[in-house]
């Protein structure tokens, strides 16, 4: 029996039409022997063959109709997210290529869906097990998702989904509520001095499915900051111990030598020994004073300062070339603190190995700030030193305390400004301080 599925559509149409025409012609010729007019024979032949034609056409196209229904069903399944269906078609031609393409599409969608599911599982596992509390809030201020850390931190272990975010925050500790009320990123402390936790709050807005959502992240920093605090104290202790040993050891030795000189009556050598003891004691005193100044830096006392007079006072204390100093321009800052800061930076420039005439202070007016550049032509800094130079107690000098640049940064930031270091082309360093103006 002829399997219509194995024939191309155009050939199927041609075979049926040709068979119908031949059969109709034969039947019309036979009927014409009984009827007076040939056209009557043709009409009667067509009428008699119409049911048979309809039967064969329906039978020939029934597999294709089933295929089209199956295609429609799988497309509906794809639309619903079910990619588990595939079609089996034994025929050839255009329909075979259509079925093959449809099955390849299903395989591709199935593979992509499986990969997406695996990525979602991985992402969910990471989100649920991260120590950072994460809360997703929809435009109606309802919690869409809260991970395990968020449940523990904000919901006492209960699920947060569906709850009002503002209601959850209202039940949080006061310091946390105040941090949320500020509406920006920041750090806050919960608890008392004996048992306190330090948190960092981060908030980000983004669009999800065309609607604005907010992602809130709370990170507990207590343990990390405690470790950093311990490391800082260890470094401070090492620096102080080193400096104390460098001063106390020679003092003790010279004191013992002085006692021996007194016992022997060699008084002529005592002044040198006592002068050295005094020098080391005063060095130690200055060292302790610098640490105390850094630890107890007061809030700046803002006052009106004229740039030209201020720079002139600086030049009385340290040598440098001034550039871009405006006459009559007034700025507000703590003159004593900024003076101490710039003196430290200018002394560092002289100690860099730069020729004295290349140590410069350049002043420039920005739209809302003043920029002060301390320039030299010394050896500059490598990348590691640049990255750490502004940290307290970091120093590359043999007897350095590591407080000069750190103190400069503290003063700049206390005034609402900032400080940065960068190497200059052709050698040297630029220390750039920006102050509001």
UniProtKB/TrEMBL annotation:
Subcellular location(s) per record: Membrane
Annotated ranges, domain HAMP: 69-114
UniProt entry keywords in alphabetical sequence: ATP-binding, Kinase, Membrane, Nucleotide-binding, Phosphoprotein, Transferase, Transmembrane, Transmembrane helix, Two-component regulatory system
Domain of life: Bacteria
Histidine kinase domain span: 239-437
A GO cellular component annotation in the UniProt record: membrane
EC code: 2.7.13.3
Gene Ontology MF terms in the entry: ATP binding; phosphorelay response regulator activity; phosphorelay sensor kinase activity; protein kinase activator activity
Transmembrane segments: 12-33, 39-57
Enzyme's top EC category: transferase
Entry coiled-coil feature ranges: none
Chief location category: membrane
One annotated GO biological process: osmosensory signaling via phosphorelay pathway
Keyword presence, Repressor: no
Membrane topology, record value: Multi-pass membrane protein
Protein name: histidine kinase
Organism: Marilutibacter aestuarii
Upper classification of the organism: Bacteria, Pseudomonadati, Pseudomonadota, Gammaproteobacteria, Lysobacterales
